[in-house]
Design goal:
This protein is α+β, with helices and mostly antiparallel strands. The protein has 2 domains: 47 residues; 62 residues, no CATH class. Helix content is 50%, strand content 25%. It has 5 helices and 6 strands. A 4-stranded mixed beta sheet has the order 4-3-5-6. It has a two-stranded antiparallel ribbon with strand order 1-2. Helix 1 packs across helix 3. The longest helix is centred in the middle third of the chain and has 17 residues. It starts with a helix and ends with a helix.
Length: 113
């Protein structure tokens, strides 16, 4: 299956930002094993590109403010107490970490050098 056909199948699987389960089931019934693997990889890749994960050390009202930066993406909130203070934003394969833990780790690595 070529990339163009794969892209068409993935875009047909979504209605806006929502994955259409019945459409996916219809598509998967027509694919052989090799094409099915490629289709699943493409769906996962598309989902990663459309999702932003914002991680904070505790439940926080600033998430709504940060979410406005990513209006065209699905924003997911995660809690990680090890961040101490700050925020970590993962947008596809880009990770932005502005936290006290990150600062401490950077200072420690510079002291060890």
């Amino acid at each position: 299956m070529d990339k163009k056909k794969l892209k068409e199948l993935v875009s047909a699987s979504y209605d806006g930002k929502v994955l259409q389960e019945d459409t996916v089931m219809q598509i998967t019934q027509t694919l052989n094993r090799k094409m099915l693997k490629a289709y699943i990889r493409a769906l996962k890749s598309w989902e990663n590109k459309q999702t932003v994960i914002i991680t904070t050390p505790e439940e926080n009202s600033d998430i709504k403010t940060l979410s406005t930066l990513f209006l065209d993406k699905n924003v997911t909130h995660a809690i990680d107490p090890s961040l101490i203070l700050g925020v970590k934003i993962q947008d596809n394969d880009m990770i932005y970490e502005m936290s006290l833990k990150n600062r401490f780790d950077t200072m420690l690595s510079q002291l060890d050098a």
